[in-house]
Specification:
5-stranded mixed beta sheet; two-stranded parallel sheet; alpha/beta; 287 residues; Rossmann fold
């Protein structure tokens, strides 16, 4: 695992200041209480809790094609649609760590939104997960195109292999016609905004971590092809601004969601997930 920074290694810029002491104590952070299971019903009205914070994590709802183990799956005693993988605990835990470790003010209550939502533009960054079977409607394609053209930032996470990448690429061909994705080199500022990340981490779901960092191909859309190399792939506008990033062949959000599921997983994977997440959020909000 990369060595976590000392206090002297952290930027003095108030926008990205990180109390490195919390990272230095390593697994002791496991003993800290996780984000409260706050819901909108804890506030008198929708506007009350939306006004509380500057940045509200926003998860995008979408439809998926196929049946069981494709569009939806059974896990941990319940049925999950693909869009809600790791939701909301990943966002709640990540919001808590952002509030603790940066000066970004984050709501503990994540939003759920469709790409057609009239207030989508209120969210400077939106998050999609597990998009291997995703299918967007024409209004959703147009909604995402408008959101990105107006300065929005999309982060896509937790999809593996060639077929699942092709699913996203087909959608982006319609959202951003004529645009080609690029793999961001490790020298790109997004890897060095707060933490210096020298290698893109591969984060497996907790259930697979004991066997390595690459998830089983049987759990993903065929043909999987190579699943061994994690990367950040991106779409940019004509001026080079990042509009879309995709953390491919890795499950960054599971590192957030599962941070309390054992010291070994936290030390080996959650710490790396938080490094990537903090860098991405600070980069997106400052560009």
């Amino acid at each position: 695992m990369n060595t976590l920074p000392s206090r002297n290694d952290v930027s003095a810029d108030p926008a990205v200041r990180v109390p490195a002491l919390l990272f230095a104590i390593g697994s002791a952070i496991l003993a800290l209480p996780l984000a409260a299971q706050t819901t909108r019903t804890d506030f008198a009205d929708d506007d009350a809790w939306l006004r509380r914070d500057e940045f509200v994590p926003t998860r995008i709802q979408y439809d998926s094609v196929g049946g069981q183990r494709q569009a939806y799956y059974f896990y941990d005693g319940r049925w999950w649609q693909r869009w809600e993988t790791d939701f909301p605990q990943a966002e709640q835990n990540f919001a808590k760590r952002l509030n603790e470790l940066t000066s970004v003010v984050v709501s503990p209550v994540p939003l759920e939104r469709r790409l057609t939502a009239p207030d989508l533009g209120d969210s400077p960054l939106i998050f999609m997960s597990d998009v291997g079977y995703m299918e967007l409607s024409r209004p959703e394609i147009e909604g995402l195109r408008t959101y990105l053209a107006n300065g929005g930032f999309l982060w896509v996470d937790d999809f593996w292999g060639d077929a699942e990448w092709s699913s996203l690429e087909r959608a982006m061909t319609e959202v951003l016609p004529g645009k080609r994705w690029v793999t961001l080199p490790i020298e790109h500022p997004i890897f060095h905004t707060v933490f210096d990340i020298e290698e893109m981490p591969q984060i497996p779901a907790r259930d697979y971590a004991r066997w390595g960092t690459t998830e089983p191909s049987v759990e993903h859309r065929r043909p999987t092809g190579s699943m061994e190399t994690p990367s950040i792939r991106a779409y940019t506008d004509d001026d080079g601004r990042l509009m879309v990033i995709a953390t491919h062949n890795t499950d960054i959000a599971d590192g957030w969601e599962r941070e309390s599921y054992g010291e070994w997983y936290f030390e080996n994977f959650s710490t790396k997930s938080y490094r990537v997440g903090i860098n991405v959020i600070v980069y997106a909000l400052s560009h």
